[in-house]
Amino acid sequence: MLSMTCIYSIWAVLYLASVDDREYIPIREISEQMEIPFHFLTKILQLLAKADIVTSLRGAKGGVRLNGLSKKISLRDVIEAIDGPEIFTDCILGLEECNDENPCPLHDKWSSAKNEIIGMCEDTSFYDLSVNAMNTRWINNSGIPGFRKIMFGKYSNPD
Amino acid sequence: MLSMTCIYSIWAVLYLASVDDREYIPIREISEQMEIPFHFLTKILQLLAKADIVTSLRGAKGGVRLNGLSKKISLRDVIEAIDGPEIFTDCILGLEECNDENPCPLHDKWSSAKNEIIGMCEDTSFYDLSVNAMNTRWINNSGIPGFRKIMFGKYSNPD
DNA sequence: TATAATTAAGATAAAATAGTCTTTTATATT
DNA sequence: AATATAAAAGACTATTTTATCTTAATTATA
């Protein structure tokens, strides 16, 4: 469904949304906490920077941070920035010519399922996701949500 | 979303469903009518044969045919046979550990969207698809549905 | 201004997916 | 039995995606 690049993007943005108050976060920190290959993640964050989802700063005390409020950034924003808007519009049977006027045999049924997915991605902000992370045992000993390792049970849960 | 292998599988099974009465259909015919690379398609049909969706016969008058009635074969059957059942169960954020008890931050929302997709794939038979193909200008001059080229407008439409 | 920290950029490598080609095996028909 | 037809199987190639490594550029701070 989503490319690894896109999945990593979502984890990274979710991490940034969870530590909103701090200024620039080093990519290395995101990489370690979210278990995303560092060098790969730097590429991904360059894409997110080009898409104006994050801003970066080089050098000492540098890193990346969200460009807007986590409430304003939707899942759809990130997915479209990385995998492209086509992911939400493409014909499921791979036809470039498929559309409402010239529908493939699955077009109508797929359209309604697709609309539900689009709605979900649009209605879900990264603030929402960070709240969910906190409400689903998905926190670390410092109470900061967004650490995959915790979800994996590699660290003990405070409760 | 779906691999090319899976998309080609669907087109191939749809073609077979549309010419139900004939016995074995040469893979070459499917390949030409549906614009699927021939050698690649032979591999795909071997997978579909292993999954008991088609039966094949070598030699003169050989080819492939559906193993059951097109009404009985669902979209889900083919997708699962090719891309594996995981495509319907995997966590959208890539977590192996994600499930109802240990949900990722998107788990609940994604589950409901996923259920709609599963329902759609389960409720749609290849008979349904062949009927849709006929009802959406997706026919050739012989009235046989299932020819991609027609949909692409490369042949004239009888109406 | 020197130093350490940190992203940017580009080259390379590895793995997965998509696609091709050739040879072998099986089948119907003459 | 000979021949033509067609799938099976395996080796090979190409492309895309995923991941790594190295060097350059930028920035804060002592």
Protein architecture, described:
Two copies of one chain form a homodimer. By secondary structure, chain A is mainly α. The two termini of chain A are 34 Å apart. Helix content of chain A is 50%, strand content 5%. The first copy, chain A, has helices at residues 4-18, 27-34, 38-50, 75-83, 86-89, 107-123, 126-135, 148-151, and strands at residues 54-57, 63-66. In chain A, 38% of the residues are buried. Chain A is built from eight helices and two strands; from the N terminus they run αααββααααα. At the A-B interface, α1, α6 and α7 of A face α1, α6 and α7 of B. The structure holds a DNA duplex (30 and 30 nucleotides).
Task: Give structural attributes.
homodimer, two-stranded antiparallel ribbon, disordered C terminus, mainly alpha, 2 strands, 159 residues, DNA-binding, 8 helices
Describe the main β-sheet of chain A briefly.
2 strands, antiparallel
Mean pLDDT of chain A: 87
Helix content of chain A: 40-55%
SSE class of chain A: mainly alpha
Number of strands of chain A: 2
Number of helices of chain A: 8
State the assembly state of the protein chains. homodimer
Given as residue ranges, the uncertain stretches of chain A (5+ residues, pLDDT < 50) are 149-159
Question: Greatest interface and its residue counts?
Answer: A-B, 41 and 41 residues
How are the SSEs ordered, and which strands pair?
The structure is a homodimer of 159-residue chains.
Chain A: H1 4-18, H2 27-34, H3 38-50, E1 54-57, E2 63-66, H4 75-83, H5 86-89, H6 107-123, H7 126-135, H8 148-151
Antiparallel strand pairs in A: 1-2
Helix pairs in contact in A: 1-2, 1-3, 1-4, 1-7, 2-3, 4-6
Chain A binds a DNA duplex (30 and 30 nucleotides) through residues 3-5, 24, 26-28, 37-40, 42-43, 45-46, 49, 56-64.
